[in-house]
Design a protein that fits this description.
Layout lengths: L2 H46 L6 H14 L6 E3 L4 H9 L1 E4 L2 E6 L2 E7 L4 H5 L6 E5 L2 E2 L5 H8 L6 E7 L7 E6 L1 E4 L5 E4 L4 E5 L7 H14 L4 E5 L8 H9 L7 E7 L6 E4 L11 E5 L6 H11 L4 E4 L7 E7 L5 E10 L9 E6 L5 E3 L7 E3 L5 E3 L8 E2 L7 H8 L2 H12 L10 H13 L7 H15 L3 H25 L1 H27 L3 H10 L2 H9 L2
Parallel strand pairs: 11-12, 12-15, 15-16, 16-23
Antiparallel strand pairs: 1-18, 2-9, 3-4, 4-5, 5-6, 5-7, 7-8, 10-11, 13-14, 13-18, 17-18, 19-20, 21-22
Helix pairs in contact: 6-7, 7-8, 10-14, 12-13
């Protein structure tokens, strides 16, 4: 190389480095400039605003506004909320082992964790909490009561509660303890040869729980398996790998993360020998299956290890990392996208390119890329996972939604259990359902159907456009017909309403296991999965069809 070429080459390299350095310095200057502007603005508002302001609240609003422009998963976690955040990721907290809900201006126990302090002390689902440690909580919020019930392990809480069927207030002494919520609240057999595992979360230990459940099911005769990931929002990436490893052999790629920080990019592979690589497997998914759930389901699909049954998943292909901040706070930042073994990313929404209303846009079908599973089946990116066997889940009627949301079913279950002490059978007879209908009649149930909402909109539009008098008689007849049908809704939708009642009764008799056992009896998605597993030809065809 000539001296002239060497000098020119060196100058080019120096020029590129200087340009990069200038760009970095410009970026740092812009950051410093905007932070200084914000600090000045913050001081001026605090000093001169006409009313008193709360500096911490102002900061939270400002930070939330900034992060909202990115995606829903990048969040600021103030110091006071760090413990609560840790609970959601680990599944562990110190308390009494109960969930509470606000219903009818009261706070009720809506779930108990079997074997933990509240359950051992004798509290029951449906009890209304009225006092904690001499503090009346009649008008308290769920947040306040939750904080009162939590505390250091081995500290006591005195709880007074009202229970349907008891005239007097009941007293309970509960010793707080470390609570670990199971990721697998239930597993069992749906028939003589098909096992079922309901995986609710991906906190610490999820993989081990699925492993133990599978071993136990096989020991009692399971020849095939249903893994239910419906409504599972995801959780720890490491546990998605561990759950996958139950069915996929050692050293197989599970997921790859790719982001801006190159050294953070990683390939996650299975670390151990699998528990069972051959048992026929159906994974249940729906629109609420997200993140770690989609990793597990996607890996099972990409390796043709089992079939996906149900509905299309949520489409969350983003990875979050938690970073520490000053004064004990934290920030959860989206740092990467994940890619499953076929190479596809299943993120559904684009938070960078938004529509005219500022909403994130979905990837259109025309821009989705085609990928192949190990057996050559075609799959696509950009919109969650599509099931191999599509089954529509249950859709609730307006009356069922009203009965649940307004706690009519909750309260009737309390009444039923109090009048049927010791009865473990939660299947309601026709006579008992008739009693429920009569009780609802006395409660003067009022609700609005979709048809009524559309009729009211039609009336408003017709009045605006001066057509109302022309169609008035037709609308009145329609309203009358809808009213008559509403009176029959509790009969028309009996099966759906009855199932929800039976789930609540089972919850009081057998806690979470009971509610799940009742829910899966006539679940159409489970029935479809079971049918496919019981037919080897159909099952194998689903896994190999191009």
């Amino acid at each position: 190389m000539s001296k002239k070429k060497y000098i020119i080459g060196s100058l080019i390299i120096i020029s590129v480095l200087l340009t990069a350095l200038i760009q970095v310095e410009d970026r740092y200057f812009l950051i410093a400039k905007n932070i200084d502007t914000f600090a000045s603005l913050f001081r001026e508002v605090d000093k001169f605003y006409v009313d008193e302001t709360d500096p911490e609240e102002l900061l939270n609003v400002a930070v939330d506004g900034m992060l909202e422009s990115l995606d829903p998963y990048t969040n600021y976690i103030p110091q006071k909320e760090v413990e609560s955040f840790r609970t959601t990721t680990t599944g562990e907290y110190a308390g009494i082992g109960a969930q509470i809900s606000s219903l009818d201006s009261g706070i009720y126990i809506s779930m108990l964790y079997e074997g933990f302090a509240a359950h051992r002390a004798g509290l029951k689902v449906g009890d209304r909490i009225v006092k904690i440690n001499e503090e009346l909580v009649k008008n308290a919020t769920v947040e306040k009561i939750s904080n009162l019930l939590k505390g250091r392990p081995r500290t006591g809480a005195e709880i007074k509660a009202l229970r349907v069927g008891n005239k007097d207030t009941l007293s309970f002494t509960v010793q707080r303890e470390k609570i670990k919520v199971n990721n697998v609240p239930y597993y069992g057999m749906v028939d003589d040869h098909v096992g079922y595992i309901y995986l609710e979360d991906f906190t610490s230990g999820a993989g081990k729980e699925v492993e133990e459940a599978l071993k136990n099911l096989k020991s009692i005769g399971a020849k095939s398996l249903i893994l239910d990931l419906r409504n599972n929002p995801g959780g720890l990436l490491s546990e998605a790998v561990n759950v996958t490893n139950v069915f996929i052999p050692k050293n197989k790629l599970v997921v790859e993360t790719k982001g801006k920080i190159e050294e953070w990019n990683r390939k996650y592979k299975t670390l151990n020998n699998s528990i069972d690589e051959d048992i026929p497997l159906a994974v249940l998914i729906n629109g609420e299956s997200a993140s770690a759930s989609e990793i597990v389901a996607g890996v099972i699909q990409d390796y043709d290890r089992g079939i996906l049954v149900g509905g299309q998943t949520f489409g969350k292909g983003l990875v979050q990392t938690t970073r520490p901040l000053s004064y004990g706070g934290q920030v959860k930042i989206t740092t990467a996208k994940y890619y499953i073994p076929s190479g596809r990313c299943i993120q559904a929404l684009d938070y960078v390119h938004r529509d005219e209303n500022g909403e994130a846009v979905k990837t259109p079908d025309s821009l989705k890329l085609e990928f192949r599973t190990r057996a050559g089946r075609i799959v696509y990116d950009g919109g969650g996972l599509k099931p191999d066997v599509k089954v529509k889940g249950d859709t609730y009627s307006a009356i069922t939604i009203e009965l649940i949301s307004e706690a009519f079913i909750f309260h009737y279950a309390n009444k039923y259990v109090s009048q049927n002490t010791g009865k473990q059978d939660y299947i309601l007879s026709e006579e008992e359902y008739t009693k429920f209908r009569e009780w609802i009649d006395n409660m003067k149930l009022q609700y609005s159907t979709n048809v009524e909402d559309e009729l009211n909109e039609l009336i408003a539009n017709s009045k605006n456009e001066k057509y109302f008098n022309d169609i008035k008689s037709d609308i009145q007849k329609l309203k009358s017909d809808v009213g008559l049908n509403k009176n029959r809704d509790i009969i028309i939708h009996k099966n759906q309403i009855k199932k929800e009642l039976e789930k609540e009764i089972a919850l009081r008799n057998e806690l979470g296991k009971g509610a799940i056992k009742r829910a899966i009896v006539d679940d159409q998605v489970i029935l479809t999965a079971k049918s496919r597993l019981q037919n080897p030809d159909k099952y194998n065809y689903t896994l190999t069809k191009k």
